[in-house]
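Let's do one together. I've listed all components of the complex below, 627 residues spread over two lines.
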Amino acid sequence: MTAVRPRFTLLALVACLGLAGPLAAQQDVVRLGITYRAGARPGIIVLATAGLDSVRKIVERDLDYSDRFEVAVVADSVAPLSGELNLGLWRQYGLAWAVELRPVIGGVEARLHDLGGDRVALQVQRGVDPAGSGPQRMGIHRLSDEIVTAVTGDPGIAATRVLFVNGDAIWMIDSDGANLTRVSRGTGKAMSPAWAPDGSRIAFMELRDYAGPIILQNLVTGTRQTVPGTSGGGNALTPTFSPDGREMLFAPSTEGGTDISRVDIQRMCCVARLTVGGKLADNLNPAYSPDGRRVAFESTRSGRNQIYVMDADGANQRALVPFDGASTGPSFAPVWSPDGQRIAFHRDIADGRQIMVFDFGTGRATALTSLGRNEDPSWAPDSRHLIFRSTRERGEQLWILDLESARIRQLTNMNGAARMPAWSPRLTGPVS
Amino acid sequence: MPRLAAFVALALLVAACGKKEEPAITPTPVQTDRPMVNQDSIDAANAERARLAAEQAARDAAAAAEAARAELVNELAATVHFDYDQYAIRQVDEALLARKAAIMRANPNLRIRVVGHADERGSDEYNLALGMRRAASAKDYLARLGVEAGRIETASLGEEVPVDPASNESAWAANRRAEFDVVAGGQTLVRPTGS
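Okay, and this is what the predicted structure of the assembly comes out as:
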C-alpha cells in the first residue's frame, strides 16, 4: 500500500461524515498526510465523547510517542463521539485499532477495539481528571501504557519522567514534555541526577564551596540527606542506584584520583572502594547491569577514556567496548539498557560527539547520531528509546530517539543548556 | 575678652604714670596682642601640616606596601594552562610556579586554593575529574619546591566555569587551566629575599 491512498480515503471519510467544510477538510488532509502512513505500523485512532478532548489529545500523543503506531490524527470536529462507534468505517480506512474514551463517574473508561478481530482487546476505567491537567496526567499516561501493552505485549513508557540539569538546578519533566518542575532546592550547582529504582527518590551531586557531596532527595516528602563518604572534600561524581535500591555507586574525585566506590544507602554506611586507579587512572560513571551483578564504567587506564566492565564487587575488570589504541575517540558515560542487551555511551569523533550503542550480541559498537554534538544518553524503560542532549538544532536541548524507527523528537526547550538527562523507571508510586 | 580689657587698663595705667613731656604714641593693646595670637595659629597650622604630612607619608607607605602586596597576590593568582586532556605542568609555566613557591616560602602563614578547570570536550563529569588532576598537579609541583602541602587546598570546577564560552581551539586553550586564590594569610606579605 502506498502512502497516497489513505490520504484520499480519509479525505473521503471527512467528507462523508459531513462534519467539516471544504476548507477544514483541506487542512485535515494535510494533517492526516503527515501523521498517518498506513501499512508502516498498525494504524490507530483515538476517539472521545465531547468533554474529553484533553484526555484524548494526551492519549493520542502518548501513542504517537510510543513509536509503535501510526496515529491517525483527525480534526477536532471528527474525533468527538456520540452513540456507537462505526467500527466498520474505521476498518475500511486501513486502521487496525480504535480507542474509545467515554466519561464514567470520577474518571474515564477506555475501550480498545481490535478492528481486525472485531473484539474489545481492553476495557479499563481510570480515575483521572477529564480536564487532563496537573498530577492526574500520570493516570492518563498509565492508560496509554495499558493500551500499548494490550497491542504489543510490551509496556509503554508514557508514565515516566526525565530528570535533567538546567542552570544550577535539577529539573523534572514528563515524558511528553509537560509538567516541567524544578526539583533541587539547594543553593549549590546540582549535577548528575539519578533515579532510585522505585522512582520515589533521586540522587545528585551538589557543588558548593568547592566541594560536591551527593544529596539523596525524597520526591514525596522533600527530605534531603547527604550520602556517607561524599562530604569529605572533593567531588562525589556520577551517583547511581543499584537495581535493588540498597546500594549506590559513585566516583569520589580527590587529589588522590577518581575511583568508583560503593556505599550502603539503606543503612547509610559502609563505603568500599571498587577500583584502584589512584594517581594513574580515573574510573567513574558506573552503570549497573539490570540484574545488579555487573557494572559498566568509564576508565582512563589505557590513556583515553574507554568503556570497561567489572563484577559488582569490583572483581574481573576488563575492557568492554572494543577500541583501537588512541585512534578510537575517547568514550564516556556508559548506560546499560534495562533489557541488559546493550550499552549506550557517547564518543568524541572528529569534531563531533556521537551517541553510540554497544550490542552484547554482536560485540560491536555503532553510532546512532551524526549531527552536532550528542552526549549523556539515558535509556527509557522499554530499552528502545534513548534520551540525550544534542546541539542538532538551536541551543543544547534534550532529544528522544527511537532506535527501531529512527524517529527523533525534541523534549525540552529551555533557556540555556539542558543536559545530563536521566529517564525514570515506570512510575507507579505516590510521587506521580 | 577679660584679658584684653586687663591689657587696656594696664596700658592706660602705665601711660598715666610715665613722663608727661610729650604724648607718646602707645601701640594699642590690640596691636601688641596680635603677634601672640598669630603665633598660636602658626604653631597650630604647622602642627597640622606636620600631622597631614605624616599621614600622607603613612598613606604613601601603606599604598606602596599595598601595591607591593597586590603585586605578590597577582603573582600568586597567575593562571597556568594545560594541553588537551593533560594535567602535566607545561614548561612555559614553570617559572610562574617557582615564583608562587618562593612567595609562599617567604610567607609561612599564606594558604592558597588551586582550582582546576577543563575545556568542554569529554563528559561534564570526567572534566570535573580532569580539573582535579590539574589542581593536584599544580599542588604537587609547588610541594616539590618546598611548600608544605597542607597549605594548598585543591578543588575542581570542571568545564562549569569557562573563561571563554566559545567552542573553538582558542577558547578551549584558555579554559584548560588552574586558578589560584589566597584563602588565608594574605593581609600582609613580604617579598621573597633576592627579588
